[in-house]
Each structure stands twice: as structure tokens, then as C-alpha cells.
Amino acid sequence: LSPGAKMGCFTFIKVMMILFNLAIFLSGGTLLGVGIWVKVDGESFLKIFGTLSSSILQVVNVAYLLIVIGAILVVIGFLGCYGAQKESKCLLMMFFSVVLIIFIAEVAAAVVALVFTGLAETLLTGLVTPLLKEKYGVDEAFTQIWNVTMTEVHCCGLNNYTDFNNSYFYDTHHSYPRQMLCPGSWAITTSCHPHPCGCLVQGCFKQILEEIRTNAAVAGGVAAGIAALEIAAMAVSMYLYCRLDEK
């Protein structure tokens, strides 16, 4: 290619890099804002996204998850956009490094999720069960999230209803959450089959895991798309980095 054609190609890729990362920056800012909104006013979020919010994200704190993802996207978007616009080798290399670290972490997480499902259950049990015992009935947003989850997913606790044994809620009310009980009755069944009143006493983890397996193809497609975008972003940033040496 002639020097003019090379310069035109460089300029085109630079502009695309700026626009792409500007979109990432704005998306990250949006997620950050939504995360702060969920943290401050979780009830209104649940009213708007009640059914949608009873997915796997209810096992963890949605607000903190959105805030972390939003902050990461804001940083990536800023480094890529500003680095390309200023033609800064330092910022472009930082962008490449951050995306590479995230890509490696995603691959590692996918391998762990596929190979060590039992380990994931153990870790979740160790993290979430103490929270249920301490915060359910104390933290209003946390309680509302789990109420919606248990109602929509038809489950009790993370593993089963015994997650609420010796909990703040049980010690205070001397009963399990009403989502686990028959109307007008304090009795509970230890069967994993549907209760005559429509309740289920099996844990939310197994229910959510089954839902993930049902939608595994969609989740895999989304993950592959994200990985492809990350690889493309790293390739473009490295191309710009190398071309700056020739200018």
C-alpha cells in the first residue's frame, strides 16, 4: 500500500477505535448509574424488573455487580477512546493489558464453572448462607430480593429451607419465611416434590443451575461474542500501537 493508503487505513481504524470505546464508556456509565440506583432504591428496581430480576443475579448483590462491571467498562472505554484520540502508546498498552487480563479471567471463570460446579456450590454456600442468616429480615432490600427470588423461582434458601435455621429471621419470628409455607399453616414439608399448596422446599441454587443449563446455548453465544469483541479490541489497539512507531 502507498503511504497515503496506509495513513487512510490508520485514520479509519483510529476513528472506529474511538467510536467503539466511546460506546463502551457510555454503556459503563449507564450500568454504573443503574447499579447506584439499585443500591439506593432497590424496591423500585424490583417493581420494574420483578420477573427479570429473579434470575441468577439474585444470588449475589445486583447493585455491587452492576457498579463493578460499570466501573470496569468506564475505565476500558476511557483508555481506548482517549488513548486512540491522543495517539498515546502508554494508554493503548494499558488498554490492551486491561482487556487481556479480563479475557484471561473470563476464560478461567468459564473453565471453573464447567469443571468445578460442585466447588462453585461450596463457595456460594459458604458466602451466601451466612448472609441469609444475618441479613434476611434485617436488610430490607436484601430481604425483598430473596422474597422475589423464592416466589418467582419456587425455591427456599440457597440449598434448602434449613439455611434459615438459627437465622435472625427464625429466631425473631419462630417460623420460616412465608414464601416457604402454606397459607394459614406453619408446617413445612421436607420433600423435594411440589407441596400440595404449591410450595417447593428445594434450594434456589439447583433451580437456577437448571435454568442456566436450559439457556446454555444463548449464554455460550453471548460469551463467544464478547470474547470475539475483546480479541478484536486487543488486535486493533496493538495495530495502532505498532503504527505509531512508523509515524
UniProtKB/TrEMBL annotation:
The keyword Ligase does not apply. Signal peptide: none annotated. Pfam families: Tetraspanin. Its main location: membrane. InterPro entries: Tetraspanin/Peripherin, Tetraspanin_animals, Tetraspanin_CS, Tetraspanin_EC2_sf. GO terms for cellular component: lysosomal membrane; plasma membrane. Keywords: Glycoprotein, Lysosome, Membrane, Transmembrane, Transmembrane helix. It is found in: Lysosome membrane; Membrane. It comes from the Eukaryota. Structural component of specialized membrane microdomains known as tetraspanin-enriched microdomains (TERMs), which act as platforms for receptor clustering and signaling. Participates thereby in diverse biological functions such as cell signal transduction, adhesion, migration and protein trafficking. Regulates neuronal differentiation in response to NGF by facilitating NGF-mediated activation of NTRK1/TRKA receptor tyrosine kinase and subsequent downstream signaling pathways. Plays a role in the inhibition of TNFalpha-induced apoptosis. Belongs to the tetraspanin (TM4SF) family. Interacts with SLC19A2. Interacts with NTRK1/TRKA. PANTHER family: TETRASPANIN, TETRASPANIN-1. This is Tetraspanin. It comes from Loxia curvirostra (Red crossbill).
